[in-house]
Amino acid sequence: MKLNLLYILGTLLLIASVLCKKVEDDEESEPLNFQVMHKLASQKDFVKRGDITLKSEKSQIGKYKGVENSGLNAKINKNDLYLIEVRDNNGNTLSSSYTQACFLLESEFKDEIVLHLNKEGKVLFADYFTEKSNCPEEIKDNIPAGDAFETSVRVLKTEQGQRPHLASLTFFKREQAKKQMTEKGFFGKYWMYILPVVLIFLFSGGN
Amino acid sequence: MYRHKRLFSFILVILLVINSTFALYKDQVGVIDWYQAHVGTPKKAYFQKVIGRSNLIVATDHNVIANLNLKSNNIYWRHALKENDKLVTIAPLDNFVVSLSESKSSNIRIWNGQNGYLVNEYVIESANNENAEYDDLLIQNNNIYALIHGKTIVKINNVSRSQEGKFDLQDNNHSKLFLNSKTNEILAIGKNNKGQLIVSVLETNGRIISEKTVSNIKFEIDDVFFTGEKLVLKNFNNKLYTVDPKSGSSSTISYEDVKELVHVKDNVFIVKTESKDNLVKINDSVEELSAFENNDEGIISVFTNDADSYVSKTSVSKKESLVVEILNANTAKIAKAFEIKNDYSKNGEIVKVSLDSYRNKDGVVLFRIFTVTKDGSIHLYKESNLVWDSEESLTNIVDLKFIALPEITKDIPEAIKNNENTGILSQIVSRIKFQLSFLKKSNDNHSQNSDILKRDPYGFRQLLLFLTQKGKLICMETLTKQIIWTRFIGNDVQNFNGIKLTNIRSSAVQYPPLVAVIGTFDDNGKESSIIYSIDTITGENYQYTNKNVPSVAKYPYKVLQTFRLSNEEKEDKTRVIALVKSETEVDFYPNIPEVIDSIKEMEQPIYFNLNDKIGGNTLRGYKLYINDEKKPQIDYLYKKTFPENEVIISYGFKEPVDYVASLGKVLGNRNVLYKYLNPNVLAVATVKPHDVYTSVLSIYFLDTVKGSVIHHSYYEGGGESSIMKPQIIQYENMIVCTFWNNGAPLEDLDTKEAKKLKKNIKKGSQIVVFELYESEIENQKDPNHEFSSFHYIQPHIESKAYLFDGIITSIGVTTTRNSITNRELIVGLDNNELQGIHPVFINARRKITPPSNEDKQEGLLQYRPIIPSSEKSIMNYNIPVVGVKNIVSNPATLESTSLVAAYGLDIFLTRRTPSNDFDVLSEAFNKPILVITMVSIVIAVIYTHIKIKSNNFKKVWKIQPADKVEKAEKKDK
């Protein structure tokens, strides 16, 4: 009895240690940081708008924090494009995206950045969307600083493509074989009629 | 009884071999389909006697060896080698044809000249693939000497059918073999890297006698000939030289400027000079024997056999009649002169000629001329009579368009055409007159063409317009395969290179359908572009009502991209074409102010892409609009570069007609999954090499307006093979990708992981199907009524992968008028078959578990990893449709039917009904019974109607039937 209790206790301890190790592993993976730059297409240089932080490579959402005094002081026209760039901490451009500048005004600066990560956790592409995709009748405002944006960050990871499910093939083949076994062929079905005729003709006559 | 025993045994044997078969009836073949076999444009052609009869043997630019019928336009036999087995040369050997081709190995094949059967094959492995084009064949009696990679000579004995030797030369730049029949020595000549002539002399047993280099002559290898004793060559300065092959010593021959040197036999040559084309003998000096009388520009062709030697000169000009002059090289006299006809506007000038001489029953010498014209077509003449011609230009198609025919094509009265300017009464009178005349005409026997160019009620009759790379337009009719018209626009400009066809006006009662032909050309060394507006009914340039719009427009730049706009030129109602000159400049055709105004009036800008070609890795997006200064402006939008090492291997193809009948998919539980119908989705496949797997294939779905990535998935082992490239087709909310999987890595087979991979990743063809829905949740639809690429929706994607037993070379899908009918996937296979795959087999929603009742109601089959193939699904039954590169389809008027055309080397056209002929009465339908039933019902209705009427009359007047009256009277009594 004592032995059994010890055995259960030991098992529980083992499970607990494995779980702890997993949590530690998660904690060990470093957060990923990216810079978000923005500008209007007519402007020359990008201005830093904010930062994105992903807790880990496995995160499905990210956290955006805007930077103060990063507004774009320029008159917006209907055809103006608003560009964003996602850079790594060293300032290397990873990807860029755009939208119509006037959409930002109609959306009241509510937007979404979608990061596409490969299986190693490296950013392949970034996409940028505003909440609404139409222009206000009157375009008045400028593009505000990064902290005025209400930005959500979504992370999409590259999927492993579907493979032919071969296990179902083995199952299918087995089923087929069974079916073939049960389904008799022509001779299997009518051998009892054919055999006597063959035997009769084999052993009769000859003279 | 003994006799009966034999009979019964025979029946028994017959019973044993009985097996069920599936086949078409003979009269079902070619009813709804037609087929046209081609060989390609010959790069080498000669006449060869096989069992005493002349045969025309060709080796073509499409890797085809063929024997063409000399009496009619058909092929005795042909062999299309695989794309990776490049045919280098062919040579005659008695009744056989010897071919030399290069793949990973050098392949010498001996074919039976009469039936084309492969008699023997010799595969010569080489250490490397260097100088693979430096191959030649030399036939001596029954021995074949093959020069391989400019270095190795292989000797094959055709009697013992064995390889007798393989000799290596020092230099690997030899490219021609000659035979010295006097000394029985082989000469291998070539041009080394320094541009010097190299001559190696060998004995037939392979012993090298001498290897010499001649350094003082600059020449082209095609200008070197062997007379039997000496080499004769023409240098860059048009001077003649002789070279002794053994000593390597050269000497000049004094003669006037030689434009071209053609070897006839031994030391007899044709020397083309500025003024004359002479038949000469070359020893240490030139001895003139004779000359052609016609001094125009011409092509020399030689025919020699043991007894006769003839040389022909075929004049090359734009004239319709061309002079052919034939010299007898033995007698140095003109043997014959005649004229042949070549339609320059349809074929261009003659570029290649082969001569044949034969004797008829009376012993009279007659000649055949086989010509290849600039467009790529071939023609056979029996002296001045054209025996046949074949549109081999159709093997280089760059684009194909289906053109719907107008209901009435001509003789439409002005009052109907210009209804705005005429009164209603005159319109009515004109219409009645026209209909009466039309009725009268239909009773008369009128020309075949006018019959063909009318739309049939089911829309099976359409026009197929082909554009070839060299600029030939061929218009065929879909029902009868008849060529309506041809035109060679490659004549108009230098080095025309066809890009595409664009429909700029569809057929209407008063307007013929128009297409724009877009191509590039060489304008005195400058790459330029050209656009033609062509009336597809006549093939002529369309004359616009607005005189400022030219029917042919030239642009002094090479277009990067062209696309059709939704705007129309108002007078002729033709669609506008945008021609992108650079990333910032664009032109419009027609380029008139109204077009600019109409584009400016559009609310939405025009989005377009400049994507890298296959092998690149970047997509770029742009926006085009008319700015406030009324000038077209292009704004750069985005650039999407795929990760390092990844190269684009395939782009998704969409049929121009892609209607969607239903916005959602109705499930078994009567709920709906709404389709993600983004018109801007482009599927792109990239491939990158991989250490463990051979390669990894990635599939991206991108929105081309926004540049956003909708989906990305990767396939370990996926990629391409030498015979199968990835193909993608997009339709409705479906994307289908086919590719070759190189399989799991073969190393470390012992590990558990490797074993699992080996089990999961199979080598072979794969089909991956994607279905895109707006949401995973049933009945949930995007609230935005109008689709916008700027509005974010992450579609729910269902995907399944299937193994396919076949090498897929092309992919297409059926299209119908309203897309109510199922869409059938069509794949062109390496084994020359076209297979239709029913949508139930490539449904991405098939489940691995047995289907539930709801799944069954939805029509879902249980998932199987292999797509089944049956004889019924082979569209071309037993006809081999070789080298299919593209499959296109177009709807017929009947909703059930789609016209499908497959082209590459051969052309095949058929009608497909993926949901069966639901809108057509079946052939088995009993029409007399229907008529009898209808008539009976009508009679019955009339009879009962009369009966009821009479009863009612009697009731109203209280008239009782006579027998009842009698009974009543009796009762009363």
Automatic annotation (TrEMBL), chain A:
A cellular-component GO term for this protein: endoplasmic reticulum membrane
Signal sequence segment: 1-20
Keyword Endoplasmic reticulum applies: yes
Domain of life from the UniProt record: Eukaryota
Keywords: Endoplasmic reticulum, Membrane, Signal, Transmembrane, Transmembrane helix
Keyword Transmembrane attributed: yes
Record-annotated membrane-spanning stretches: 190-206
Membrane topology field: Single-pass type I membrane protein
Compartments reported by the entry: Endoplasmic reticulum membrane
Pfam families reported for this sequence: ECM10 (PF21203)
Homology family: Belongs to the EMC10 family.
Annotated protein name in UniProt: ER membrane protein complex subunit 10
Lineage: Eukaryota, Fungi, Fungi incertae sedis, Chytridiomycota, Chytridiomycota incertae sedis
UniProtKB/TrEMBL annotation, chain B:
SUPFAM superfamilies from the UniProt entry: Quinoprotein alcohol dehydrogenase-like
Keyword Plastid annotated: no
Domain EMC1 first beta-propeller: 23-392
GO CC entries: EMC complex
Keyword field: Endoplasmic reticulum, Glycoprotein, Membrane, Signal, Transmembrane, Transmembrane helix
Pfam families xref list: Beta-prop_EMC1_N, EMC1_C
Source superkingdom: Eukaryota
Transmembrane listed as a keyword: yes
Sequence ranges assigned to domain ER membrane protein complex subunit 1 C-terminal in this UniProt record: 732-957
Transmembrane stretches, start-end: 929-946
Membrane topology: Single-pass type I membrane protein
Family: Belongs to the EMC1 family.
Name of the protein this chain belongs to: ER membrane protein complex subunit 1
Organism the protein comes from: Anaeromyces robustus
The organism's taxonomic lineage, starting at the top: Eukaryota, Fungi, Fungi incertae sedis, Chytridiomycota, Chytridiomycota incertae sedis
